[in-house]
Amino acid sequence: MKAIIIDDERLARKELTSLLQTHSEIEIVAEATNADEALELIDQHQPDLIFLDIQMPEKSGFDLLAELDRTPLVVFTTAYDQYAIKAFEVNAFDYLLKPIETDRLARVVQKLLDEHKKSTIHAGEPQQKLSHTDQVFVKDGEKCWFVRLDKVRMFESDGNYIKVYFDSVRPMIHKSLNALDEKLDPKAFFRASRKHIINLSWVEKIEPWFNGGLMVELKGGDKVEVSRRQASKFKERMSL
To answer: Which of 40, 78, 95, 214 gives 83 a disulfide partner, CB atoms 3.0 to 4.6 angstroms apart?
Structure first.
């Protein structure tokens, strides 16, 4: 597994690197001291895993994750219990409290290896579109979530923001629907209209609608109008 350590403290990076030397399955390909540096290194190396300090100057670990299109496995590293608790609130893979204990690290590494074997995400393919198996990080104010895209039933444009529909929540992210549409796999997601992108695996019912359009009902009850312009493409995609 390729990994990047992201921590503004040199001694913390050195300590973790030293501890990981006994775990040959994990290869440290780079180290970053801040979020901006980490963004470049993640884009360059496409790691399977990042060890991420939560509290860093200027941008936190959560801020960094919010800027990534595709999120690798994440293990938070922190010296504070309060951040560890928040890490679990955002459904992180796991966390390590500083100073890191060797036994605790060994357990986390074993979990990582088990998860990596199950994963269908292939590293080293930066041009690959975001599909159902990819994980993204959603940050809305102080609330954060890791979400697999197969859980997202719909994206809805709301001004300069996008509303993300998954589970029972609808957090807002500061992105444009056009930019998101370019990154999503068209086999998995469909641009229904100027305001909506839907997850095709969530489609439950399709009905004719006004002016040659369609009304699509998703599992769970959400309804989305497919514009007349997009209706023929949708029928072709769904083999209607």
So the answer is: 78
